[in-house]
């Protein structure tokens, strides 16, 4: 799937130094910051989400564990999509047999992001009650087993008719979504990867932050870490990454470059042009009407209630309502 890995990034975007004037003038939000550790030749990306994530979650009023899972899914989507060169849509879809049956998020090459979930309210409350009975704290480390159950994660890059469609599928395994994604890259793609992230609320606003480190591909493609020097570099970088706290990830006043400086100040961090992201949805009156026009009379009659057909976008909660007579029999 990830054969379109963005290894040519250095030639495409400008780079900068963390000690440049104005580097930390104000906190950045809703950005993907790509970077490189020159000492160890590791590449990474940091994601910080604030208002864009809150705008995605707020219209749905999800129960806390569902909102948490959607926030994680959106964050992982940004981390993964930013390693690719594509002109289209990157989609991360998670399906399980637990109380939360579907999580989906996508990002366009222009930086538009969205996400949503399907869940069974009754089963969700039963799962939460079981956690309380076990006196277990509700964290990312138990969301996968308790709320998603068994299933799979699918990564898709759709560039329309302009290019081949890429897809990767991995079984849901491990204690968290991060565990699942890391296993996929390490085993299936042989791209040694480490991810740490946090999601939560600060001042009643949903926020998220994450960092992904990866072993850069060599001239012959992707290879596992070889030799004691590479092993030491990787272990050192992962120890530094693990030192990042939830408060640092979610601090609205902390610039991503300041975070990278704290974590990797001895690793010669080189940063690239950040990518701004924003909440957006691709639903529209035109698309809904086109879909309804293509439906059979029987289906339209079944959907109609009191002479009207009403639909709601699962991503943005936008309501669409039309008179049944607007779509006569063809």
Description:
By secondary structure, this protein is α+β, with helices and mostly antiparallel strands. 33% of the residues lie in helices and 29% in strands. It is built from eleven helices and 15 strands. It has helices at residues 9-12, 51-57, 64-81, 121-133, 140-148, 177-189, 227-242, 246-250, 256-264, 285-293, 297-303; strands spanning 15-17, 31-37, 42-49, 89-96, 100-108, 112-119, 151-158, 166-171, 193-202, 205-215, 269-272, 275-276, 278-279, 308-312, 319-323. A hairpin with a 2-residue loop joins strand 9 (193-202) and strand 10 (205-215).
The average pLDDT value, as a whole number, equals: 83
Order of helices and strands: HEEEHHEEEHHEEHEEHHHEEEHHEE
Estimate the global geometry from the Cα principal axes. Answer: globular
User: Unreliable stretches, pLDDT < 50, 5 or more residues?
Assistant: 1-14, 219-228
Largest sheet descriptor: 7 strands, antiparallel
The total beta strand count reads: 15
How far apart are the termini?
Answer: 42 Å
Task: Kindly provide the radius of gyration, computed on alpha-carbon positions and rounded to a whole number of angstroms.
Answer: 21 Å
């Amino acid at each position: 799937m990830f054969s379109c890995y963005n290894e040519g990034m250095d030639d495409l975007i400008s780079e900068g130094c963390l000690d440049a004037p104005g580097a930390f003038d104000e906190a950045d939000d809703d950005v993907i910051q790509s970077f490189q550790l020159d000492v160890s030749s590791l590449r990474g990306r940091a994601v910080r989400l604030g208002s864009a994530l809150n705008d995605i979650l707020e219209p749905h009023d999800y129960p806390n564990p569902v909102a948490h899972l959607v926030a994680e899914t959106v964050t992982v989507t940004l981390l993964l999509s930013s390693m690719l060169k594509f002109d289209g849509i990157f989609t991360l879809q998670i399906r399980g047999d637990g109380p939360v049956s579907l999580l989906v998020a996508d990002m366009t090459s222009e930086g538009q992001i969205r996400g949503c979930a399907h869940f069974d309210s009754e089963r969700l409350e039963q799962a939460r009650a079981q956690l309380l009975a076990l006196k277990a704290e509700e964290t990312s480390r138990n969301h996968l087993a308790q709320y998603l159950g068994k299933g799979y994660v699918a990564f898709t890059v759709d560039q329309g008719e302009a290019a081949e469609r890429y897809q990767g599928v991995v079984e849901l395994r491990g204690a968290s979504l991060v565990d699942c994604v890391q296993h996929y890259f390490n085993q299936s793609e042989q791209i040694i990867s480490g991810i740490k992230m946090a999601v939560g609320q600060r001042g009643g606003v949903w926020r998220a932050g994450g960092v992904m480190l990866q072993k850069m591909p060599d001239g012959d493609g992707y290879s596992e870490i070889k030799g004691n020097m590479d092993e030491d570099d990787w272990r050192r970088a992962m120890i530094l990454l693990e030192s990042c706290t939830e408060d640092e990830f979610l601090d609205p006043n902390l610039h991503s470059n300041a975070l990278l400086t704290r974590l990797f100040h001895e690793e010669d961090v080189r940063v690239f042009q950040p990518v701004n992201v924003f909440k957006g949805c691709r639903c529209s009156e035109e698309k809904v009407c086109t879909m309804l026009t293509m439906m059979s009379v029987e289906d339209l009659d079944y959907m109609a209630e009191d002479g009207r057909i009403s639909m709601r976008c699962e991503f943005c909660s936008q309501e669409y309502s039309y008179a049944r007579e607007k779509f006569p029999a063809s």
